[in-house]
Amino acid sequence: MENLLSSPVTPLEIMTGKIVPYVLIGHVQMGIIIGMAMLLFGVPFAGNPVALYVAALLFIAANLIVGVTLSAFAKNQLQAMQMTIFYFLPNMMLSGFMFPFAGMPQWAQAIGSVLPLTYFNRCVRGIFLKGSDWADLWPSIWPVGLFCLVVMAVSTRFFHRTLD
């Protein structure tokens, strides 16, 4: 990492290089999970697999970018791990994953509307169960892309070129 940091590579290139392999691993994991869901549990798949992989690409990238951003702010690994709790716990609780989104109070919906898991849940449900097409998915795809861009901009702004 020291050699990489001393090279003329930009922070955006370093972060992209760190994220891309994990995006590929996430897609392999997703393929295994989808296969098991269909084979073992008989979950119907009514939609376009390419749409699911595009939505997953953005969602996986968004979460990895958040991890890189939190690492840029953290002083050490323990602090970075602790900060992730304040991101991932609201994702699980306020995205509609555990509780119906429409049944939440307005303040919880407002927070959930910023989180990428909210939109990814809508995409997955739409693709799997309804066979949604690109026009139906677009309102749930663009916010995740915007989230990626904003968080990546914050991450590159606060990126440290030292190992301290």
Q: Can you tell me about this structure?
A:
This protein has seven helices and no strands. The model has no long low-confidence stretch (mean pLDDT 88). The protein has helices at residues 2-6, 11-41, 49-73, 77-94, 106-112, 116-130, 134-157. 25% of the residues are buried. With 164 residues, the chain is an all-alpha fold.
Task: Offer a quick outline of the entry.
Helices cover 76% and strands 0% of the residues.
Number of strands: 0
Total count of helical runs of at least 4 residues:
7
Average pLDDT taken over every residue: 88
Shape: globular
**What is the H-and-E element order?**
HHHHHHH
Strand residue percentage: under 5%
Output the radius of gyration: 17 Å
Distance between the termini: 12 Å
List the uncertain runs: none
Classification by helices and strands: mainly alpha
Largest sheet: number of strands, sense, barrel closure = none
Percent helix range: over 70%
Q: How are the secondary structure elements laid out?
A:
Layout: H1 2-6, H2 11-41, H3 49-73, H4 77-94, H5 106-112, H6 116-130, H7 134-157
Helix pairs in contact: 2-3, 3-4, 3-6, 3-7, 6-7
Any descriptors?
164 residues, mainly alpha
